C-alpha cells in the first residue's frame, strides 16, 4: 500500500549575519511575524546567532524538514547582548594580533573575531597561505590561556574576503567595490572568461584589489558565450557574399565577423549576410563634428597659440649664440674681454709671448712656479729612484 503524505507549504525568510554576507534561509514558525530589517534568533552550526532579515517571507514549496526554523524574534535585550559581544570581539582580536607577532606565525594575519550569541564559542578568522607552515594547534594552545571559559575555533579566509571587509575604491574607479556593495557570494573566475570577451590579459587589466581575477569578468561572460554560438570561429574559412575568406575577428556584441578576403582585404559581415549570401544595404552615417561653437561661414583665419614673444628685429632669440661673422660685424667681444676683430693683440707678456695669446697668470692658490722663459713649457719632473 502506498502512503501519501501531503505537506503544507511553509513560510521561509532570508537571514544575513554580516554586512553584504551570504544569505541563509530559515523556516518561519506559525505565530511569528517578521519583516525585512528585523533581527531574529536562529540556531546554526556555529551555535545560536543573531541575524537580520533581508528577504521577505515567502512560501516554500520544498520539504520544510530540510530548513532550520527561526527560534524567535529578537528583543531589545538581545540587541544589547549583541553590542556587548561586539566589544568583546574587539578585545579578542587585539589579543590574537599580539600572539601572531611571534616569528613562528610569520605571514598570518588576524582578520576578525566572532562570539556566538550565548558567548560560549569564539571563532578567529585568519588570513594565511595553506602551504605556509602555519600550525593551528600551536596557536590555539597558546591563545587558550587568555580565553579559558569559551570554545576556540579558527577559520581561514581568503584575500577576497579581506578585500570585501576593507572595501574602498574599485579598480574601475567605482566608489565602492562590487564585493563590498552587492556581491553576497564569490563566483569562480577563470582566465577563459577574459579570453572570451577579448579583454587584454595584462595582469593590471584583469586583476582586482585582492590580487585575484576581477569578479566583473563574470558579468557578461554568458552573454558573449551565447552570442558566439551562431558565429564562426577565428581562423575558419567561410563563404561570404564576396567570396571565400578567413575569419580574423569575431564581434559577438554586433553579431558579425571580420573576414580577410584575398585581393580585397578585411571586410565585416553580419550573421544575416553570411546566412543569406547577400549584402545588406548599408546606409552611410554622416560624420558630425560637434565643437560647441556655432558654424562659421567663410574663410577662417588660423591663429597661432605660441606663448613665446617674437624676437626683435636684428636680434636672435635667447639661447642662440651668434656665429663668428656676426661677432665681427657687430664688433662683439670674445671670452676674456678681447675684441673679436683685432688683427694684432696687445703685448701683455713680453717679447717672447706668442702672438695672440695672453700671458699666463700665476696661480696663488696652487703655489706653482711660473716657467722661467715665456713660451717654454713647465720643467720636467725628475724620475724617482726606486
Describe the structure.
- It contains nine helices and twelve strands.
- The protein has 386 residues and is α+β, with helices and mostly antiparallel strands.
- Among the domains are: 10-74, no CATH class; 80-157, K homology (KH) domain (GMP Synthetase, Chain A, domain 3), CATH 3.30.300; 162-227, no CATH class; 232-276, SH3 type barrels (Roll).
- The strands form three sheets. It has a five-stranded antiparallel β-sheet with strand order 2-1-4-3-5, with helices on one face. Strands 9-10-11-12 form a four-stranded antiparallel β-sheet.
- Mean pLDDT is 76; it is low at 1-7, 284-307 and 336-375.
Provide keyphrases for this structure:
GMP Synthetase, Chain A, domain 3, 386 residues, 9 helices, disordered N terminus
Strand content: 15-25%
What class would the helix/strand composition place it in? alpha+beta
Amino-to-carboxy terminus distance: 125 Å
Characterize the main sheet. Answer: 5 strands, antiparallel
Helix content: 10-25%
Number of helices: 9
Task: Give me the side-by-side strand order of the main sheet.
Answer: 2-1-4-3-5
- The helix/strand order is EEEEEHEEHEHHHHHEEEEHH
Instruction: Please give the CATH class of the domain at 80-157.
Output: Alpha Beta
